[in-house]
Design brief:
mainly beta, single chain, six-stranded antiparallel β-barrel, four-stranded mixed beta sheet, Putative methyltransferase, YaeB/AF_0241 family, about 230 residues, about 30% strand, TrmO-like_N, transferase, methyltransferase activity, Elongation Factor Tu (Ef-tu), domain 3
């Protein structure tokens, strides 16, 4: 049986490419997105939602739609060396490419279109949203539940700015977002090349950095021109 699912909203995110996005929601608290509902959905659709602190966002992994899926994947938390069944992971390479994120709802704005502002996001700019639901702690919070091969929050990198970076042109909020994002170590799990320069496309900047041992050094921040 076939079903047709249409998006209800579009994500406006500081993450302009897949590289650099946190692998789970909540790991980068400074990552704020705007979920803009399509014009068919007016203020009545979100009546009462402002009273919830967190929301479930169902979305499409649109950035990998053309890459297909595999029954076995290599989770980054296992160093990219062990295979697990796709349904035992959060891999975006799924049969139906549907994702789920739990985000903090910061505020709702009623303008030309309804906009939900959420933080702790792990979504790519332009992500199609297919559903929004309130998070209900007494039903959904299971802190003592077994979590398979995932044991706690991943270790973070120490992040430093090189002196040549003109960070004074960045707002404190922008600096925090960049630092928190790089601290999550966006490299593929199997890659450890100290001399390699990585480039993250975030906000209106290209951020260049290198990683040696457990320290990431930001070596340049370039403002993109349209």
């Amino acid at each position: 049986m076939q079903y047709t699912i249409e998006s209800i909203a579009t994500v406006h995110s500081p993450y302009k490419q897949k590289f650099g996005i946190a692998r789970q929601p909540g790991l980068v608290p400074a990552a704020e997105i705007c979920i803009e509902l399509h014009s068919d959905f007016h203020i009545d659709c979100v009546r009462g939602l402002e009273n919830f602190e967190y929301v479930w966002i169902s979305f499409i992994f649109h950035g990998v739609l053309g890459e297909g899926w595999s029954p076995l994947v290599r989770p980054p938390r296992l160093g990219g060396k062990q295979k697990m069944g796709v349904f035992a992971t959060r891999s975006p390479h799924r049969p139906n490419h549907i994702g789920l994120s739990l985000l903090k709802l910061e505020r709702i704005e009623n303008g030309k279109n309804i906009r939900l502002y959420c933080s702790g996001a792990d979504l790519l700019d332009g992500t199609p949203v297919i559903d929004i639901k309130p998070y209900i702690p007494f039903v959904e919070a299971k802190p003592k539940a077994a979590s398979g091969f995932i044991n706690g929050k991943p270790d973070e990198l120490n992040v430093i700015w090189q002196p040549q970076c003109a960070i004074n042109r960045l707002s404190e909020k922008e600096q925090t977002l960049i630092l928190q994002s790089i601290a999550q170590d966006p490299r593929p799990a199997y890659q450890n090349i100290p001399e390699r320069v990585y480039v993250m496309d975030i906000l209106q900047y290209e951020v260049k950095f290198q990683i040696r041992d457990n320290t990431a050094e930001i070596i340049d921040v370039i403002q993109k021109t349209n």
